[in-house]
Amino acid sequence: MNAHLNDGELRAALDGELDAARLQHLETCNDCQMRQRDLNAQSRKTLQKLSFLAPTPQDSAPSARNAWNRIADRLSTPKEIPMFKKLFASPLVRFAALALLLLVLIMSFSGTRALAEELLNLFRVQRVAVIPVDFTGLDQLTGGATGKQFSELISSSIEMTQKPGEPVAVADAAAASQKAGFNVRLPQNQTPSQIYVTGPAAFNVVVDRAKAQALLDEAGRSDLTLPASIDGARISASIPASVSIAYGKCPKPQEDKANGDSSQISGRLYPDCVILAEVPSPTVDAPADVNVQQLAQIALEFTGMTSEEAAAFSNTVDWTSTLVVPIPKNAATYEQVNVDGVTGTLIQRPADDAPQYALLWVKDGIIYAISGLGTNSPQAVDMANSLP
Amino acid sequence: MISLMKKPSINAAGDARAESNSAGFEALFMEHWAHVYRVLYRLVGDPAEAEDLALEAFLRLYRSYPLPPAPEKGFNVGGWLHRVATNLGLHSIRSFKRRERYETTAGKNAIAEAPETRPAEILAQEEERRLVRLTLARMDQRQAQLLVMRYSGMAYKDIAQELNLSPASIGPLLLRAEREFEKRYLEMETEGT
Q: How far is Cα B104 from Cα B159, in angstroms, rounded to an integer?
């Protein structure tokens, strides 16, 4: 092969990684050698900066035996589950918890909308948008002493006005529709293994600005200042009854809660479990004088965005009708897909140990979510498209 | 040998298998521990963080492959651990971004407190490494991953295997990543980060 080497091949040659045939050309081609010299000069600058990444045997490492003892301890001790993960441990709980993400929406509601009344029905879901975020900030809030404060703040701020109760098993779609109060749709030609209905829930949140700001400070984000106007603001959320339909061998909701965040174990015990969840749009009311645009900026910046990125994202979303779903930055991917006659969002988490997927879409005021472990996301799309 | 038998298992047969396999896992751990730790230490620059992340990499190996993977099946344990360690390390230095201000302050304090014991060259080197880490943290994950895997010593074929790429594509991708790195590094220097 006599063609000149491209820059990539020249770069590989610098690392001694070029195949023999191409190397032979390089050794006899003055033009390629000259280009390689130029490239080498550039690459040396990078090499100089990054060379410290190469480990050497002189780097001392902690005792392997002690490290092994630590890992053995961790494998033999049930893992402490961060509160955030607990929220998402069960598919049922996870879906209910999704509704809590409406709080993010509340924080992000566009301030440009005319708010004429004292209380406005701010939000009703018509579509889903995904936002990749860095959960480190949240982890800081939910871990250790800060985690306790965070739990206390949440528990002291939220007043449940209607508790959903335990999920109740029903026989079929008709019974589920009757109990849930909306038309439950089941995929055709598939027999569910379980159908559960969870009752409606409602809660109020009263914002304690001082405590919330103290938590932000504790999490190392004292640069973010909550506005004084939110202090004492009462936000009300109402979540209608939801239905969860399981296919394959799935844990019962009670078992699922007990297992907590053991997705690896769940993956082995329930490898074919797929869950379809359906819930009419929750609604949220908030005082008109809350500067939610400002809060949106703070929430998004807390997730790791720069203020410019937060503003840019905020401008791309209609906050009055969009359910914003945060996903772990760099650990999950998402794409838009056509399902059930509308545009849905397919989220995939190709983790090394426990890949997961979730397909979300909204149709006729109902939010649908299909989730499963593994990588068989086409199955979710087929299932969505088979809904009557 | 430390038993891993308290790990949740499916049934008694699974327990027995786990018992016999834990020896294989321990052997893998002993073989790869120091290297995984060193890769992470170089990347994150903090011994305690590197140790925690290295343990996490092995935990993921254990959870992903409860049976010690056989080399003859084409599974490169070292390559797998190197890739997972790289991802964990990059995730960690991304979270360093939010501690950036603290680190900067701490660095200034260190200079102020012991100028005579820390030659200027060492301080300059530490500053450069800090900037390198911040630059990697700001880069596209895939490009940063490629740079770290290569500069921490992985061969092209191993990188290609771990990232599901052809070995021939590593050179061009590496070159592109290096150019992006230089561009962003320069931006950071200009910003005075």
A: 33
Burial call A52-66: b when 16+ CB within 10 Å, e when fewer: bbebeeebebbebee
Q: Sorting pLDDT into bands at 50, 70 and 90, what band is A122?
A: very low
| Nearest residue, CB atoms, B128 vs list A39, A49, A136 | A49
Chain B CB contacts of A10 below 8 Å: 171
Chain B residue numbers touching A354 (CB-CB < 8 A): 63
Chain A window 182-221: which residues touch B at a Cβ cutoff of 8 Å?
Answer: 220-221
Look up the ipTM and state it. 0.80
The answer to whether the CB atoms of A53 and B62 lie below 8 A apart is no
Split into its structural domains, chain B has a count of 1
Chain B contact for A50 (CB, 8 A cutoff): yes
Q: Report which of residues A42 and A100 the model is more confident about.
A: A42
**Residue A367 resides in a domain:** yes
In this structure, is residue A34 part of a structural domain? yes
Residue A72 lies in a domain: no
- Residue B59 domain boundaries: 14-191
Measured CA to CA in angstroms, residue B5 lies from A67, A69, B31 at distances of 18, 14, 22
Instruction: Please state, in angstroms and as integers, the Cα–Cα distance from residue A75 to each residue in A335, A366, B5, B126, following that order.
Output: 35, 42, 9, 36
Cβ of B33 and A49 within 8 Å? no
Whether A215 and A146 share a structural domain: yes
Contact A269 B10 (CB under 8 A): yes
Asked if residue A101 belongs to a domain, the reply is yes
Which percentage of chain A shows pLDDT scores above 90?
Answer: 13
> Are residues A2 and A139 both part of a single domain?
no
**Across residues A12-25, what is the average pLDDT?**
89
Domain ranges, residue A341:
83-385
Does B63 sit within 8 Å of A354, measured CB to CB? Answer: yes
Q: Does residue A25 sit in the same domain as residue A93?
A: no
| Residues of chain B neighbouring A302 (CB-CB closer than 8 A) | none
